[in-house]
Write a structure and sequence with these properties.
The complex is a heterodimer. By secondary structure, chain A is an alpha+beta fold. Chain A has three helices and eight strands; from the N terminus they run E-E-H-H-E-E-E-E-E-E-H. Chain B is α+β, with helices and mostly antiparallel strands. Chain B has a single domain, classed as Winged helix-like DNA-binding domain superfamily/Winged helix DNA-binding domain (Arc Repressor Mutant, subunit A), CATH 1.10.10.10. Chain B has a three-stranded antiparallel sheet with strand order 1-3-2. In chain B, helix 3 packs across helix 4. The chains are: A alpha+beta, B alpha+beta.
Chain lengths: ~160, ~100
C-alpha cells in the first residue's frame, strides 16, 4: 500500500509559527482518536499521560516534557501546551506558561479522508526561538509522517 | 577565543551523549532522525543535544531538502584545541621557571 506523501512542515519566522498540513487516507474519527487518545498518541509520537484536568506529560525513554490539554472541540480541533525547549539544559516538570508553545491540530473531512493541520505558536516566549523553530519544524515533519503510516496501515 | 566563550564550549562537550553525536557527525553530516537511527537515543533527546552543540558553535544546521542535517564546525573545535595548547605551553614555561629557580637555590 502506498502511503500519502505530504510536504514538510514550514516555519514562519516573522510570526514565530511552525505549521504543516497533511492529507491522511483515513476518516476523521480515526484521526481524531489518534491525536487525542493518550494510548494512540504514544504509538506515533510520545507516551502521553494526562490527569482528569488534562495536565501531565509526554515522554520518551530519554526525555520527559510537561504537557497540558488547552482546549478540545471534538472532532474538529484540539490544542496542547508544552514547554518543549530544545535549547535549555533541563526540561521543567510542569508547563511554564511564560516559556511555552501551543500546538493545535485541526481536522477537516475530505473526499480522500482527512486533512490535518498542525499549527504551533508562541516560539517568541522561548529563550532561543530560531533554534526551536527549526527543531520543531523537523519534529512535525517526522512525527506526522509516522502518524500517516500508522493510520494508513491496517494495524 | 576568550575564556568566556570557552567555558560554554566545555559545558557542551562535558556530556557522553554529545561526544557520541559529535563522533557520528565526524563521519559525515546527519539529521537528528538519522542520528536517532544510529545511536541508542530518541530524536527528541538528540534534537536537544544538537541545539546545545549548535548554541556554542560546535555544529551548524545545513538544510537538505525536507530535513535539517548537522555538520561539525571543525574550526570551533580546532580553536578550542589551540586554546588548550596555549594553556599547556604557559604551564610548561612556569614549570621551567620553577625548575630554574629551584636549581639555582
Amino acid at each position: 500500500m502506498t502511503m500519502t506523501s505530504n510536504p514538510p512542515a514550514v516555519v514562519d519566522e516573522a510570526d514565530f509559527i511552525v505549521r504543516r498540513t497533511i492529507s491522511i487516507a483515513a476518516p476523521v474519527h480515526k484521526v481524531w482518536s489518534a491525536i487525542t487518545d493518550p494510548e494512540h498518541i504514544s504509538r506515533w509520537f510520545g507516551r502521553v499521560q494526562l490527569d482528569d484536568r488534562g495536565v501531565g506529560s509526554i515522554s520518551w525513554p530519554d526525555r520527559v516534557l510537561p504537557l497540558r490539554l488547552e482546549s478540545m472541540d471534538e472532532p474538529h480541533a484540539v490544542s496542547y501546551r508544552w514547554t518543549n525547549d530544545d535549547v535549555s539544559s533541563d526540561d521543567p516538570a510542569t508547563v511554564d506558561d511564560s516559556h511555552s508553545t501551543v500546538f493545535t491540530f485541526t481536522l477537516q473531512a475530505t473526499d480522500e479522508g482527512t486533512q490535518l493541520t498542525v499549527v504551533e505558536t508562541g516560539f517568541q516566549s522561548l529563550a532561543h526561538p530560531s533554534a526551536n523553530l527549526a527543531s520543531h519544524r523537523e519534529g512535525w515533519t517526522i512525527e506526522l509522517d509516522k502518524l500517516v503510516v500508522l493510520l494508513e496501515s491496517d494495524v | 577565543m576568550t575564556e568566556s566563550t570557552l567555558i560554554p564550549v566545555f559545558a557542551a562537550l562535558g556530556d557522553e551523549t554529545r561526544w557520541s553525536i559529535l563522533t557520528e557527525l565526524g563521519e559525515g553530516d546527519a539529521s537528528a532522525s538519522a542520528l536517532a537511527g544510529r545511536l541508542p537515543i530518541t530524536r527528541q533527546a538528540i534534537a536537544k543535544h544538537l541545539a546545545v552543540l549548535q548554541e556554542v558553535g560546535l555544529v551548524e544546521p545545513v538544510p537538505a531538502g525536507r530535513e535539517i542535517r548537522y555538520r561539525v564546525v571543525g574550526s570551533e573545535l580546532a580553536a578550542t584545541a589551540r586554546r588548550l595548547d596555549a594553556v599547556g605551553i604557559a604551564w610548561d614555561r612556569r614549570l621551567a621557571a620553577i625548575k630554574q629557580i629551584a636549581e639555582g637555590l
